[in-house]
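Thread: "does anyone have the structure for this chain?"

Original post by V.I.:
We have the sequence but no experimental structure in hand. Need at least a predicted one for the grant figures.
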Amino acid sequence: MWIRSLVVVATATIAVGCSSQKPVEHPAQSTQQAPDAASAAPVTPDRRVGAVFLGGETLHTCSGSVLNSVAGDLILTAAHCVAGGVDAYFVPGFSGDVQPDDAWHVDEVFLDPRWLADQDPLADFAIARVSRDGGGSVRDAAGGGYTLGRVPAVGADVAVTGYPMGVGGGPIGCRTTIAAHDEAFPSLRCAGLVDGTSGSPWVSGASGSTVAGITGGLDGGGCHDDVSYSPPFDDAVARLLARAQAGGEADRAPDAFGDDC
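Reply from O.Q.:
Generated one for you, tokens below.
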């Protein structure tokens, strides 16, 4: 579920490749799926979840979610969904087309020091400040935002919503349980969480208002579309949110890079 982007600096043209990219599986390579494994399916758009567009293009390449921040201007996505020198836009509740007031420009990005140093997958999360020409806050436009939570335990129920990479189209969703913590990364089994779902919120709690993970981390969220990972949400994520809310200095994301899949 990794991002592969190409920035053509000489012509100031941005050609965005496959974000949240999972390789095509051949039968001999496919991960064995349990008979009762969940599958992603189209869902009604949730204004708190949106698509991330890079470079002002019509292709959306990742997913993100609105945070319930003090000023209402922060979103959450995967760190590998943003790249230095590339404009990004967030469209909450994207349902196939974009109206002028729907797109929120990513003004600032806040990243964990481990990601800035060497793209540590344990720190594959990003908080971004967004705005639009029409003013207002993205939280108000979305009708609310998610509270930042902590890493779920094995067996905890979670709901995942995100956007397959493409032009147009609506969200897909999956409700399942945390399967394991592989190499410290929470994981879940759900078939069909394909390219573009990196940054999708993992929502936990009975109220459905707490984001306790995002698709990302190990192998950019996973090399196969039936197993997904999240970086562990711990004190580091909370500190990043506090820095963003306090108006601390923003970061320049690393340039686009490859993955280990």
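V.I.: this helps a lot. The chain is about 10% helix and 35% strand.
O.Q.: and The chain has one domain: 5-16+37-245.
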